[in-house]
Structure formats: C-alpha cells, structure tokens
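Tip: read the tokens left to right.
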C-alpha cells in the first residue's frame, strides 16, 4: 500500500496510506481531510480538490487533460504545481507523493 504525504492549509503534514487504484482525492478524503471538498465526487467538473504537487513527482504524473486545465484556470491559487487530485490515479509508482491542499477558492 503506497504512502501519501498530505500538507493541510494550516501547514500540518500527515502521512497516510492509500490503496493503489484510487484517485489521490479519494485517498485524501478517505483519510479524514475535510478541507478537501471534492464537491463533484471526482467527475472533473469543479476544482474543489485542487492540490499542489511536490515537484519531485511531476514527471510521474500523466499529462493534464484540457478539462482539468480549464477548471484550474478558475483558481486564483493556481501555479505550475497545481493539479486536481481527482484526476491523479494513486499508484505504487507514486509511493511517497507529497501534495499540499490548495487555498479555498
């Protein structure tokens, strides 16, 4: 079971375990991080699961879809490390992935 490191908006860092095959959003939600709203439930129709990905893992992620890019454009907290956590499948190759929950829009 791979490990995910989540940094909250307040700067608290927690290590959690998640099942490979879930989305990063599902792993975060299932481990009790209530500040990640994920209102659409992973359908890529909102940006409430916005996270900032540690640069070390950027190359291990699939390219961003046009829909994900468009949704992230609506966030004032978007930067080069921004991704929607619902669009990242959590795999064994992402063991140790570190993400920071983005500021609330």
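Filled-in amino acids:
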């Amino acid at each position: 079971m791979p490990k995910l490191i989540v940094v909250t908006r307040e700067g608290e860092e927690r290590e959690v375990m998640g099942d490979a095959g879930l989305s990063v959003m599902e792993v975060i939600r299932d481990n009790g991080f209530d500040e990640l709203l994920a209102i659409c439930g992973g359908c890529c129709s909102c940006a409430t699961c916005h996270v900032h990905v540690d640069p070390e893992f950027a190359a291990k992620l699939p390219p961003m879809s046009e829909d994900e890019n468009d949704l992230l454009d609506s966030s004032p907290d978007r930067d080069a490390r921004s991704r929607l956590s619902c669009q990242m499948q959590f795999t064994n190759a992402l063991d140790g992935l570190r993400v920071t929950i983005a500021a609330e829009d």
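The chain has one domain: 3-101. DSSP finds two helices and five strands in the chain.
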